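Task card 7
Instruction: Convert sequence to structure tokens.
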Amino acid sequence: MHIAHRRRLDPQRPPWNFFRVLIVYNRDRFTALLSYSSDTSSWSVEAKKVSGPKLTAWDLRKLGQGIVLGGVAYWLLRRTALAVRLDTPEPTQTRMPPDGVPNPLQQLRLLGVMPDGKLCFFDAAHGGGCVSVAWTVFETSAGEWVMEHSIRLTRLKIRCAVAINLRWFCDKGAIILFTLGRGSRNRGTYALNLATKKVDKLDDSVDCDSWRNFVGYEMDGAAYLKSIACHSSFPSV
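Output:
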């Protein structure tokens, strides 16, 4: 199930009091799509996934976090992405290339939206004893995934790739949030800035790899100071 707000469906219209729910599930012979729109207070007719085979039960369980870009919701599959258009009366599958992205463990892969508005895939690996991160963008004009860059974080030593867990991508700042757990000498929560290639440690918790829920939130300096002021009490003069 995925919930999308107006900003991701139509950036020209305000997001207030509007959302759309998308449900992906299996029938006996096909994968079905169903959406609910809050502005009409109604469900769409059931639609079918028309491209590629029916999703397996394993695929459905592993869909994980989805994103919405240009009115289309995306989830990672094994070597591609499931894309479903939401800004239509009924959900409609959008064709994607059948391959083009690696298929490591789920915790080592992540979808995001780059600051320039391109869909992006991240994958992490064990690279020569340290954390390695690569990213690939989807070029809509060519209809294919194109490798952009890779980086080795030599200061973050790991014994195996399972120590890494990619958690969230902050699209405005192009920052990947990830945790390092068992199998690493540097347990904690980190932020990798793709523009500067700089890594900052955000938290020293040794059990961060066991966290089930992790949500990133971007805030500029002015908004941050305002939030502090709203929750602070100052003595009267």
